[in-house]
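A reminder from the course coordinator: this example appears on the midterm review sheet, so study it carefully.

Given structure:
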């Protein structure tokens, strides 16, 4: 009897071991890779790390859920905000068929340079931050999609707001000579011509330029009411500091490229009163924004999520839920992304047009008050308690 019982027990244990092995094999087969690309080192790394952390948070929250079809792994790659490096890491991600979706870039100059790479390898892409129109609209592709806005509307809103409500009339511009800076300036100048405002001088500078004495001396002679700056945070901090040293007492106006804690920390008290447009309300006002903030805080990341972190989270969740629906096959993912309409995300509803651009974005006016970017409508500048320069 004991012998029979032992044989049955051994068979049961063997069956259990086989079942466990099969479950383990099934689980391993269900692993899916996503690639996140952004500037993880260098002067723009605050934004890249905030985006990476936000994408990682989306993966962690999904993987903690029971009864999902797939478990996800995030492969993080550093483009350094440099087009040549971006092409290399984009090729690495796009050529790896084990990576189902690529979630790239913060810097527009990098994103513009990498479009051909993604299309060549038929890699599904959901851009999380870069705003240059050409990324999506230069030519129609199946591969390219973007959850963040283009830079067009923020410049239209800026021109109308500052010449309308604020009644400024005279501008000078400093823009970086990357695709990002040139495009930002081009659109702002275009929309300014439709208002009573006037551009009296414009100066292109290198993204890594350190000394602006020549440009700011000429600007001081032109005596503008506002300096329009089109570039990213590190350059903006340097320009603002040198404006102060040279006594250029004009209102400082930036673009979405400087919105975030990194600019406020870098510029210190000089940041007060800086205005910029960004295509989303403050995260606390977003659908499920408080949920995102709370969950991000639980991770104890060393970096803040910065302005585009919520977009990185939304892009990653969209990628995850698309794979959950249709599987990790790239062709099927591309078919699904072509039909995204009213997808519910923390940044609001996402709908891609026929080029892959999210059309449900809204520009918000921002101002720095007491060391924080806040919605203009919630500020003491709006009520008149505080005044922008020249008012």
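Designed residues:
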């Amino acid at each position: 009897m004991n012998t029979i019982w032992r044989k049955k027990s051994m068979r049961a244990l063997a069956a259990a071991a086989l079942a466990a092995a099969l479950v383990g094999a099934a689980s391993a087969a269900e692993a899916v890779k996503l690639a996140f690309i952004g500037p993880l080192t260098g002067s723009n790394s605050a934004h890249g790390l905030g985006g990476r952390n936000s994408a990682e948070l989306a993966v962690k929250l999904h993987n903690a859920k029971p009864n999902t079809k797939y478990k996800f792994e995030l492969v993080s790659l550093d483009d350094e905000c440099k087009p040549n490096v971006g092409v290399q890491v984009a090729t690495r991600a796009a050529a790896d068929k084990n990576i189902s979706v690529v979630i790239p870039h913060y810097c527009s100059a990098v994103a513009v340079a990498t479009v051909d790479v993604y299309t060549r390898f038929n890699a599904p892409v959901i851009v999380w931050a870069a705003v240059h129109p050409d990324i999506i609209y230069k030519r129609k592709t199946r591969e390219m999609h973007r959850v963040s806005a283009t830079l067009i509307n923020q410049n239209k809103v800026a021109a109308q707001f500052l010449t309308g409500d604020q009644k400024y009339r005279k501008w000078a511009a400093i823009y970086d000579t990357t695709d990002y800076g040139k495009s930002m300036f081009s659109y702002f100048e275009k929309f300014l011509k439709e208002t009573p405002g006037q551009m009296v001088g414009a100066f292109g500078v290198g993204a890594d330029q350190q000394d602006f004495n020549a440009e700011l001396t000429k600007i001081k002679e032109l005596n503008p009411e506002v300096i329009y700056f089109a570039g990213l945070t590190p350059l903006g901090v340097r320009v603002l500091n040198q404006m102060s040293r040279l006594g250029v007492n004009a209102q400082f106006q930036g673009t979405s490229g400087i919105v975030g804690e990194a600019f406020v920390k870098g510029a210190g008290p000089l940041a007060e009163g800086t205005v910029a447009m960004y295509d989303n309300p403050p995260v606390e006002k977003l659908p499920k924004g408080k949920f995102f903030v709370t969950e991000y805080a639980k991770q104890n990341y060393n970096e803040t999520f910065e302005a585009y972190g919520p977009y990185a989270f939304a892009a990653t969740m969209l990628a995850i839920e698309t794979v959950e629906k249709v599987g990790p096959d790239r062709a099927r993912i591309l078919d699904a992304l072509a039909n995204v309409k009213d997808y519910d995300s923390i940044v609001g509803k996402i709908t891609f047009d026929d080029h892959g651009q999210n059309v449900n974005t809204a520009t918000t006016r921002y101002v720095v008050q007491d060391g924080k970017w806040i919605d203009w409508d919630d500020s003491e500048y709006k009520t008149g308690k505080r005044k922008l320069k020249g008012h």
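Residues 1-10, 12-29 have pLDDT under 50 and may be disordered. Residues 2-29 form the longest helix (28 residues).
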